[in-house]
TrEMBL record:
Its EC number(s): 2.7.1.81
Keywords, in A-Z order: Cytoplasm, Kinase, Transferase
Primary localization class, coarse: cytoplasm
Single annotated GO MF: hydroxylysine kinase activity
Alphabetical list of InterPro entries matching this protein: Aminoglycoside_PTrfase, Kinase-like_dom_sf, Pseudomonas-type_ThrB
Protein's name in the database: Hydroxylysine kinase
Protein task: Catalyzes the GTP-dependent phosphorylation of 5-hydroxy-L-lysine.
Transmembrane intervals: none
Pfam families xref list: APH (PF01636)
Organism for this UniProt entry: Rhinopithecus bieti (Black snub-nosed monkey)
Leading EC class: transferase
GO cellular component, one term: cytoplasm
Length: 220
């Protein structure tokens, strides 16, 4: 998301599927026999933890991802994201697996009557990857080293990834793009006047002075 009106319009486009609707999607689109569905945290999309009935083989836990209406208008971006996941999986990274819909696609567009209009959402299914967020475990120098090592390996591996629609990932003023750190200045008021704000302001200042002046030399 970016800011201002764009941020508001995209927030309004966030899916609001119920657990029952998510369960029905997992069954009708991906052919799962669902035992239970639970909501997962999300930003501007909607995620569900799907528990499927046990089978002789194959996973029993999945993540159903429902893209917001704005993102759903760009299926190329979702396609590239899925292909990256499969590429990293094949390279040995501990990633989820991309599941195929009944039509053998890696994503499916579903239309829903919201009462005032028909809205379309791209849905996809990934295998559930168990684990704990870094924020929930004690941080140690060794852990930080391992994270950095993995990030470097990931970066090196992705240099080998090629896709004709790769440009679909590029979004101007996308706030989650690290090179757009200065865009965070407009949200500093949320922190109030405290030490945390001083730290963030200092980091943004350093980014402008030390990184932005060298961006043209970095690989995208």
């Amino acid at each position: 998301m970016s800011s201002g009106n764009d941020q508001q319009s995209e927030a309004l486009s966030k899916p609001t599927f119920s657990e029952e609707q998510a369960s029905a999607l997992a069954e009708s689109v991906f052919g799962l026999k669902v035992a239970k569905v639970q909501p997962l945290p999300s930003y501007d999309d909607q995620n569900f933890h799907v528990y499927a009935s046990k089978t002789k083989d194959g996973p029993t836990e999945y993540v159903l991802k429902i893209s917001n209406t704005k993102a759903s208008k760009n299926p190329d971006r979702i396609e590239v994201q899925n292909d990256i996941i499969m590429f990293l999986k094949a390279a040995g990274f501990p990633t989820s697996s991309v599941c195929r819909a009944k039509g053998d696609n890696t994503a499916s567009l579903v239309s829903v009557d919201s009462g005032s209009e028909i809205r379309s959402y791209l849905v996809r299914l990934l295998t559930y990857l168990p684990g704990r967020p870094i924020a929930e475990i004690p941080i140690s120098p060794q852990l930080l080293y391992e994270i950095g090592k993995l990030a470097a390996k990931l970066d090196k591996t992705l240099q080998k990834f090629h896709h004709p629609k790769l440009s679909s990932l590029h979004r101007k003023n996308f706030i989650w793009n690290l090179k757009n750190v200065p865009l965070l200045e407009k949200y500093l008021y949320v922190l109030g006047q405290n030490r945390n704000r001083e730290i963030v302001e200092h980091v943004i200042h350093l980014f402008k002075e030390e990184v932005m002046t060298k961006l043209s030399h970095f690989r995208e």
